[in-house]
Amino acid sequence: MSQPSQQAPQTGLLTGRAKNLALAGLFLANFVSMLAMNVVGTSMPIIIADIGGTQAAFTWVVTATMLASAISTPIWGKLADLTSKKVLLQVALIVFILASAFAGFAQDPTWLIACRVFQGIGVGGLGALAQIVLAEIISPLERGKYMGILGAIMAVATVGGPLLGGLLTDTVGWRWNFYVAAPIAIVAIIMLQRTLHLPTRKQKVKIDYWGTALISLGFSSLLIWVTLAGSNFDWWSWQTAAMVGGGLVALVIAVFVELKVEEPLIPMTLFTNRTFTLASIASIAVGLAMMGTAVFLGQYMQLARGRSVIESSLLTLPMMAGVLLSSTIVGQIITRTGKWKRYMVAGAVALLAGLVMMGQLRYDTTYWYVGVSMAVLGAGVGMTMQNLVLVVQNTVNPAEMGTSTSAVTFFRTIGGTAGISVMGAILAHEVADYFKEGFTKLGALMQQNPDPAVIADLQKFQESNAIPKIADLSAPVREVVESSYGHAIGNIFLAAAPVAIVALIAIIFLPNIPLSNKSNAERISELSQREKAAPSDAGSTAGAELFGDAVRVATGSIPVITSEGGGRDGDDGPSTAR
Prior knowledge:
Helix content: over 70%
Order of helices and strands: HHHHHHHHHHHHHHHHHHHEEE
Strand content: under 5%
């Protein structure tokens, strides 16, 4: 009897039960990273207080992870094109879990921040490599439903992580927030070792050290500036000039370096691919919507509605339900029909509508409206986030799969990190203005009808910028605080809406290229067989790499694409599916 779980001997491709087991290990690795990243969200105030940290330390504990994740993502992607994807995935898991374990032993903020940097490096690898490996074993046509599963995993971990973290903190202590993922990660490593068998392409590894250093320096400088400007120093200051100017200069130099080196970290030729460029632009907006709402919805529920941490997590379920349902359902439809663009355009419209609806939030907005707004926004994120990666993977050179996939993920993380910082700065300014207006009116009222409890609360606000617990405030002061945060958080969602318009325009102009029915490993195997079959004296076409309906001619470090028919990038001509 034939075995259903076999690996094709000619190419090393996974099929049947072997493929399903490999996918299970891949999804488990992705889940453990997302869970471990989100599990500390509700416990972070307690953690920082316990190890003697300040508000600045709190900011850096969050920022360090996101920054390290963003900067390391393209590095992992480039290595995936040059070395074993399986080994890299396991290394990323090991780095992440060791960093988490050491974070659990943290005794001071510096220790915790350093561990969070390494956590971010591991997360950057796991986030990009999961999608790269998926592309290696699943065709774009079939990949839609699996991209939907990845989106669902993200949604479940985003909701379940904070709930689990709150439970662990209240029972066995906050340090178990960092330990809880270790057993799952060990299982994931073993499963990947036993089930994930990918074809290995031997080639000399050449690291783009200068490009890596310059790109890391440039984006780090800009992201740190966005994080600190407006709080640690003024937006218009010498620090701004130094960090923005230095970052831009580093990135400009990096472009010239990437054009010259043999194995660039981010090949500039990727930006000649219209699909890649537009998808990267749209990913920035999606990252802002996904990460920004996750952060500020929690603040809205706690500071504008007076809900507890656990209640806040449960009240944001409509957002995650929207992500989960839309990503899985649309993923299944894309796989069955092969049509993707109409759903991504609908997702971009939902993204814009959700942000506009969220822009109307106030402290007394009915919960049904808040829930519907979150669900619409979540549906927009679910229909666009993973599918942007899918359409890029469908069009790029198979040899650049890791680089292109990680680049799209990189831009999404950049958008989220920058968006959180800018939205946070706007929030602080708006809240201060509403506080001033509300407390001025309340102070005038107290002069006519004094209330000792209200006057005492007003004095606390004058003496300190810290916000007391909402439940401890007198009713009039509490109403001012909740009203201020409710109105301000609504304003920042509305301010983010123009970014969603940019995403909608970018997605509308994405070339409607049919999805291929071959995995990346199959495409590379096919190219390899064609190269072996081609005569050595084939003239100017010798060494050409067939790719879709185009010929990618080997020209050193800068590949050139020449059209040989319809269906090219930017053309709605005949199908390029193979």
